[in-house]
Amino acid sequence: MTDVRKVGICTGGGDCPGLNAVIRAAVKTAIIKYRWEVIGIRDGFDGLIWPEKTRPLQLADVSGILPRGGTILGTTNRGNPFAYKRSSDGIETVRDFSPDVIRNAKAMGLDCLIVIGGDGTQKIALDLFHKGLNVVGVPKTIDNDLSATEVSFGFDTALHTATDAIDRIHTTAESHHRVMVIELMGRDAGWIALHAGIAGGAHVILIPEIAFDLDRVCDFIQQRNIFGKRFTIISLAEGVKLPEELERSYVEKYGASPQLAGKGNVIADYIAAKSNKEARVTVLGHVQRGGSPTAHDRVLSTRFGSAAVDLIAEGGFGKMVALRQDSVKYVDIGEAIGQLKVVDPKGELVRTAKSIGIHFGDE
Ligand code: F6P
């Protein structure tokens, strides 16, 4: 047991259903089990740069937040204290605030900081650890692409939202005999598009891990027509790599460094022109990140939040909680970051999808 009396907690990067459940479990465990004080740090690491953005968290502060989406602490995906960007009068400046973070954490008497965040946030946490701040990590991403953990909370909720959307698309697609592209989140990995595509009965799944040829997809759509299936649903991960020619028109349409959303439009245009069918696009976007976490995500978040506090009690600084063989384990943050968990194109899930006739545009 370490001599801990006060811990901080912050959420960094994009929000995700289950963050509040993690905060609640961590605060409850720290206060009920260990009798520690907890300080809530607002907006990622910003609260350690500007300490007026912090507040003590009591049990009453986390009462009722279990089913709430978002994060009561606020978050940002632009707040790297090592290279903090600010702009004033059109001039952008970059400053290293990490000494302020370390100094303020010490002044607040924080014995450790619980950092809930994805790959980028955990990398910052590790750098702060190397500069002398005790940290423990809780992995977070709806994309489910962190290799350290079998599953991350938020993924199940996003999947339910995406599957519900595909169910709704189904009836309108069938009625109008259309090709419907539903664009789902997944920057580097196609987990949501793959799982939701299978769960929602999509006919085509396009993900970053599998290179596809849209002419093959068009042939497949024609085959479906011949068999009397006059509609097709395409589950698309936003991070797919477009064929060169389409990538050019995508960049023309959305700019040189586009946000990911929008690839569905160029794909739908191509299919409509080539297969002479009406095509429509639904970009589900941040709907997938919002809303109340599913029961699965609430349980996983609670396990992670509570285990993070136990990890501090054991003195496991520089480590992160993770799910391995359905048990919560501790892993070094350094080993956990930088390695994405992507869909195996030859894996069981893709093979199952292919066995039931789902097309990936690759053969
Ligand atoms: O990494 C999680 C994620 O939800 C991605 O799937 C998506 O591309 C990205 O965040 C969106 O980020 P932002 O909220 O900054 O647009």
* Uncertain runs: none
Helicity, as a percent range: 25-40%
Q: Based on DSSP secondary structure assignment, what is the total number of beta strands? A: 13
Note the gap between the termini: 57 Å
DSSP helical segment count = 12
| Structural class label | alpha/beta
User: How do the strands line up in the largest sheet?
Assistant: 3-2-1-6-7-12-13
Summarize the topology.
Elements: E1 6-11, H1 19-33, E2 37-41, H2 46-49, E3 54-56, E4 84-88, E5 91-95, H3 98-107, E6 112-117, H4 119-130, E7 135-139, H5 155-176, E8 179-184, H6 191-199, E9 204-206, H7 214-226, E10 232-237, H8 244-254, H9 263-275, E11 279-283, H10 295-313, E12 319-324, E13 327-332, H11 333-336, H12 348-355
Parallel strand pairs: 1-2, 1-6, 6-7, 7-12, 8-10, 8-11, 9-10
Antiparallel strand pairs: 2-3, 4-5, 12-13
The structure holds 6-O-phosphono-beta-D-fructofuranose.
Summed up:
Helices cover 39% and strands 18% of the residues. With 363 residues, it is of the alpha/beta class.
Descriptive overview:
- With 363 residues, the protein is α/β, with parallel strands linked by helices.
- It has helices spanning 19-33, 46-49, 98-107, 119-130, 155-176, 191-199, 214-226, 244-254, 263-275, 295-313, 333-336, 348-355; strands at 6-11, 37-41, 54-56, 84-88, 91-95, 112-117, 135-139, 179-184, 204-206, 232-237, 279-283, 319-324, 327-332.
- Strand 6, helix 4 (119-130) and strand 7 (135-139) form a beta-alpha-beta unit.
- Helix 1 (19-33) packs across helix 10, helix 5 crosses helix 6 (191-199) and helix 7 (214-226) crosses helix 9.
- The radius of gyration is 22 Å and the shape is elongated.
- The structure holds 6-O-phosphono-beta-D-fructofuranose.
- Residues 14, 77, 141-143, 185-187, 238, 259-260, 289 line the site of 6-O-phosphono-beta-D-fructofuranose.
